[in-house]
Design goal:
It is a single chain. Helices cover 68% and strands 2% of the residues. The protein has 21 helices and 4 strands. The strands form 2 sheets. A two-stranded antiparallel sheet has the order 1-2. A two-stranded antiparallel ribbon has the order 3-4. A hairpin with a 2-residue loop joins strand 1 and strand 2. Helix 1 packs parallel to helix 8, helix 1 runs antiparallel to helix 9 and helix 4 crosses helix 16. The chain starts with a helix and ends in a 33-residue tail after the last helix.
Amino acid sequence: MSAHTTELVVFIVLFLIVSGMGFVAARWRRPSDLASLNEWGLGGRSFGSWVTWFLIGGDLYTAYTFVAVPALVFSAGALGFYALPYTVVVYPLVFLVLARMWSVSHVHGFVTPADFVRARFGSPTLALAVAITGLVATMPYIALQLVGIEAVLKAMGITGHLPIIIAFAILAAYTYQSGLRAPALIAFVKDSLIYIVILAAVIYIPAQLGGWDSVFDAAKAKFDASPAPGDGILLNANNQLQYITLAFGSALALFLYPHSLTGVLASKNRNVIKRNMSALPAYSLVLGLIALLGFMAIAAGVKPVTTGGKADTNTIVPVLFDQMFPDWFTGVAYAAIGIGALVPAAIMSIAAANLFTRNIYREYINKDATDAQEANVSKIASLLVKVGAVLCILLLDPQFSIDLQLIGGVVILQTLPSVALGLYTRWFHKGGLIAGWAAGLAAGMWMLYLIPNPANGKQHFGGSAFGLANLGFDTKMTIYAGFLALGVNLVVAALGTLIFRAAKVADGKDATARDDYFADEGDPKVKDLDLTGSH
């Protein structure tokens, strides 16, 4: 560890500065009272364009993105670049959807997507299904932020879990005190550091390696020598469908995650959301540069850190920085990754806590909960969520957390008919939506169970590339399991709706049917509305 003293000092100093900002955030735009979910969990719904841009960007582009995307490119080549079209197409897809979600949430005081589903379809059961789905999908995502911090610590020669426990204890403390204002303020520092580090990396590292020609030649040589059929610097006939459906399916899933919607609902008006959906693709440029770090690591001959006889590919980027940068700047780069874990982890824990408070505690335990009671329950729930994430790292193989997050993407997609389509139509019957949700989950789990990973010897849950041969087709082509599962969900939901309608089974009352439901920002009916009565 003595060889990494400078890096460690820079990392700790920047980490402590950001942690101090987290505590100070409680006084930033301080309201008269933080004891409500609107203030603690959504920052008073007052964030403007700049704050929202950094907040949502900091939420979506995480520490795990920083280490996992280049690691995938390092291992599989072109397939790892699926993240680029995914983040390019997502913003036009959700441009109007999120503006509508903001409108109805602003009018009715909704804090979670399950709040909307509860009111739209008049079904506590469907809302509970959406809430539990969100919780299940979010928990391993938080754990993966720890994987990002752990990768940096391993590269500095630090083993053991105590540093991670300390880091998350600090995170828990300032999130408890400041709520969503903490990650909103920290996001400025986090994103600035990431931009600086990545821009320096794509200029400095290739120059040290003989230029981009040498980088791509080294990557091509590696994959040409690989026996695996799915890797290479170009896509092939077997993985093109997987690439397309994975990118599109991931785009559909991204803003269904509760933490993604939390940043959106914290915006002060619809125009903020529209501007951000136009400006956020700028992050995709940085993501493309981050992915190229995988090829740079190949050219630099990087070997991942080995722990317990297993090579941890998530350490590819930290080791690359350690090899190529001066010690002081490596410390800055490590801090960018570490701080990059704090912002999304805070937002995710707040979003998960809000789901529990609004859609389980208030719905089933204390229907008459006051704003202050809701805020206190959410604060405690956010602490428990972080403890759960730490336990995932302490008690489970980190690879299992990665597998859980993979499952989480397939799981969260099953809320699309209720949440996203529900914003545009109420044609679906609540019973049909519940049946579709259950069928989509069952189909998704079945497909994921059948997927092996020969690289690590796993027979089940080895990835998201479902072989079409399992459906009887004579082909080696694969497709994203979540995409097929969503198709099953929609078909069952539509058939179920037709059956329930034919049987004249009563549907729930729509509590969102008001003239100002989707009113534009300038409409006087949207101004100064009472944000109460979400159920």
